[in-house]
């Protein structure tokens, strides 16, 4: 299931600001417009703040809890670590700086810091594995967003997430596991089916299981299985 979406590169890099956490922040209207033209990267902080509390999901609350909010924020776009690394590594369109400084964080350091954050905050899957899956679908034309609000790893969109329905949710199998238990799959499928999405179970194979550099993703193999239900049986 692939879809072609053209991604242009910007004529000059976008500045992103990172402090220890799970998001990179980009400021300014021009940069927001560029991120949208590149393929709808990031989420506008104002849009999240305007949501009624009853309409906010876990991802919305995580952003509001993690990002300092003031009365006059200006334009602020929140990038996930996957989005930020893709913009830096694959497109060369983002320069990540240490928050509050002009000190640039190079690609290798971003890789290690993002992995360390995942590891030390007990994220279920290695950032390297998640990014490999993100990279796989992004380079095949899909717009990839967090699936945390639906209990999955990612959601896939064909067009702008503000205008389009996501047809698929992705659940990544943990490294070292070949498959999820049927009860786990059924639970995920019921949640995803209730919001009219298909469920893709994905696992990543790597010859050594060592992801110490960004180039490791070139040796990873992404395996995908679509879950379908017929009556009460999973096939």
UniProtKB/TrEMBL annotation:
Q: What does the UniProt keyword field contain? A: Endonuclease, Hydrolase, Nuclease
Q: What is its EC number?
A: 4.6.1.16
Pinpoint the tRNA intron endonuclease catalytic domain residues. 127-206
- UniProt keyword annotation of Hydrolase present: yes
Which GO terms of type biological process are on file?
tRNA-type intron splice site recognition and cleavage
Reaction(s) catalysed by this chain's protein: pretRNA = a 3'-half-tRNA molecule with a 5'-OH end + a 5'-half-tRNA molecule with a 2',3'-cyclic phosphate end + an intron with a 2',3'-cyclic phosphate and a 5'-hydroxyl terminus
> Which domain of life, per UniProt?
Eukaryota
Annotated Gene Ontology cellular components are: cytoplasm; tRNA-intron endonuclease complex
Show the GO MF annotations: nucleic acid binding; tRNA-intron lyase activity
Q: Which family does it belong to?
A: Belongs to the tRNA-intron endonuclease family.
Q: What is this protein called?
A: tRNA-intron lyase
């Amino acid at each position: 299931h692939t879809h072609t979406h053209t991604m242009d590169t910007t004529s000059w890099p976008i500045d992103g600001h990172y402090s220890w956490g799970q998001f990179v922040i980009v400021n300014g209207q021009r940069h927001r417009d560029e991120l949208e033209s590149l393929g709808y990267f990031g989420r506008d902080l104002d849009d999240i703040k305007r949501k009624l509390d009853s309409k906010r999901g876990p991802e919305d609350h995580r952003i509001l809890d993690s990002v300092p909010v003031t009365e006059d924020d200006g334009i602020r776009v929140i990038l996930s670590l996957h989005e930020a690394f893709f913009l830096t590594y694959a497109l060369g369109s983002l320069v990540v700086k240490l928050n509050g400084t002009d000190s640039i964080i190079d690609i290798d350091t971003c890789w290690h810091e993002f992995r360390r954050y995942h590891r030390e905050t007990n994220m279920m899957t290695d950032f390297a594995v998640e990014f490999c899956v993100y990279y796989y679908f992004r380079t095949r034309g899909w717009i990839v967003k967090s699936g945390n609000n639906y209990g999955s790893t990612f959601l896939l969109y064909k067009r702008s997430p503000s205008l389009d329905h996501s047809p698929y949710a992705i659940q990544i199998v943990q490294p070292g596991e070949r498959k999820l238990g049927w009860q786990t799959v059924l639970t995920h499928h019921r949640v995803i089916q209730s919001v009219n999405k298909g469920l893709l179970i994905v696992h990543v194979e790597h010859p050594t299981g060592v992801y110490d550099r960004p180039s490791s993703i070139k040796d990873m193999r992404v395996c995908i299985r679509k879950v379908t239900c017929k009556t009460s049986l999973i096939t």
